[in-house]
Amino acid sequence: MLKNYVKTAVAVLLRRKFVTFVNVFGAALTLTVLVVGFAFLEGLVSPEGAQHRHRNILTVYRLGLADSDTGRRLRGGPGYAFYEHYLKPLSTPDLRSYSTLPQVGTSYVDGRKITVQLRRTDGDYWKILDFDLRAGRTLTQDDVDAGRFVAVVNESTAAAYFPGESAVGKTIQVDTLSFEVIGVVADESEMSYLAYADVWVPLTATASSGLERQWIGQGMAMLYVEDPGRRDAVKAELRAALDGFEYPPDPSQFDTIETRPVTALELVAEATTADLLGGAAAAAGSNESLVPEFLAAVSLIALLFMALPAVNLVNLNVGRIMERASEIGVRKAAGATKSVLVGQFIFENVVLAAVGGVVALSVAPWVLDVLSGVFRYSRLGLDVPVFVAGLAFVIVFGVLSGAYPAWKMARLEPAAALRGHTDV
Fold it and tell me: Total domain count for the chain?
C-alpha cells in the first residue's frame, strides 16, 4: 500500500508542475528558516568544543543583593568574594571554578592593532572545560597561586601575533600587561558562553587585584559534577547555604541574596524568556526553572511560523484536490473510506513537504555558513539532532497544510463528485 501511495503522490505532483513548484518553494523556505533556527538554538544550548560536557556543569552567572527594609538592590555577575564565601566551600560539586567574563584588550604589533577578548581563570577552569590543546600547556592552580604573568591563547590569536611562528615561549602584550605564552588551544565559538575567549590568564595576573573584595562583578562560576544526576543535590546544598546569608562587609546593607546555579538550557531560557517578561533578576533568585515557558514559547513561534505559509498552501491544495473530484467519486463509490482517503492525501502532502525538506537541508548549511560569520569562531552546522528536527518539521508542516484540504475532500458525496460538483 505504501508503494502505491508513493507512486500516486509522485504522479499527482508531476501533474501540475507549476503548482507543485510553488508548494515546494514555500515549504522549502519555511523549513530552511526552522532548521537554521533550531541549529542556532542547539549551538547555544549544546555547544561543541571545550563546553561539550555542559550536562555536567551548573553555572552561576547572576547575583542580586537586596535589603528588605530599604528596598535597595545591587545586581550583576557573581564576584570572587561571593564565590569564596558560598560556592567554593560546597561539598557536592566535584570541581568548582571562578573566572571573569571576556573583556576587551588591545595590542599593537608592527603597527597593527590587535583586539582580543581576555578571560581570567583559576586552575580548575581547565579541568572542567575540555579544551583542544594544540601546543604547550594550559594554566594550572600553581600559576594562579604564584600570580604568574602567563597566558594561553587560541590559534587565531597566535597567528595574529606571531604569523608563521610558534607562539609558545614568546611574549604578548595586552593593554599595559605582558604575558608569556605557555599554550595554544583551538578557537572556541563566541556562542560558547563558558569557554569563549582569545587569551586566558590567571585570575591573579593583574596590575591591581581587589578580586577578593568583589561581591558583584564581571564574573561567573562553574560547579561540576561527574554524574549529571547530582545536579539537584548541588542546587539544594547551595540553597541551604544561602538561607543563612550574611553580607560580611556590612550586614546592615543587604540581608537577601538572589542567585542560583543553572544548566545550559536554563541559562538560555532565563536570558531570553525572563528578560522578555521583565523579571530576569527575580528569576535568577527563584528556584523555578523557566525552561517549560521557554520551550513552550519556541514551539509556539515555530507553529505560528509554519502556519502562515501553510494557509497559502492550504488554498493551493484545496484547488488541487478538488480538481480530482471525479477520481474521488470513483474511489468512494468503490468503497474507499474517509479515513483511507484522508490518509492518502495527507501522505501526498507530506511527500511534497519532504521534497521541500530535502531542499531545505541542502540549503541550510550554506545559510549556517553565512550566519557563522556573525559569531566569532562559530561552528554552526547540521548534525544528528538538527537532522531529526528537520524531519519532524517536515511531518508537522505536511500534516498542518494538508489536513483541512483532505478533510474537505473526504466529505464529498460520490454522486456529486462524479458529476463534478465540489461543494460540501
Answer: 2
Same domain as 223, residue 77: yes
244 C-beta neighbours (distance < 10 Å), count: 7
Note whether residue 92 is domain-resident.
yes
Q: In whole angstroms, what is the distance from residue 344 CA to residue 8 CA?
A: 9
If you ran DSSP here, which 8-state letter would residue 213 be given? G
Q: What is the pLDDT of residues 302-330, one digit of tens each?
A: 777 776 666 666 666 666 666 666 666 66
Torsion of CA 270, 276, 277, 280, to 10 degrees: 40
Higher-pLDDT residue of 24 and 62 is 62
CA–CA distances in Å: residue 361 to residues 40, 123, 138, 351? 14, 42, 39, 15
Residue 241 belongs to what domain range?
A: 62-261
Alpha carbons 31 and 294: distance in angstroms, whole number: 21
Q: For residues 186 and 160, is the Cβ–Cβ distance under 8 A?
A: no
Full DSSP string of 361-373: HHHHHHHHHHHHT
Answer whether 215's CB lies under 8 Å from 80's CB. no
Q: How many CB atoms lie within 10 A of CB 55?
A: 12
In terms of phi and psi (left: phi > 0; alpha: psi -120 to 50; beta: otherwise), the region of 216 is beta
CA distances from 290 to 55, 286, 294 (A): 17, 10, 6
H-type alpha helices, 46-197: 80-82, 125-128, 141-146, 155-161
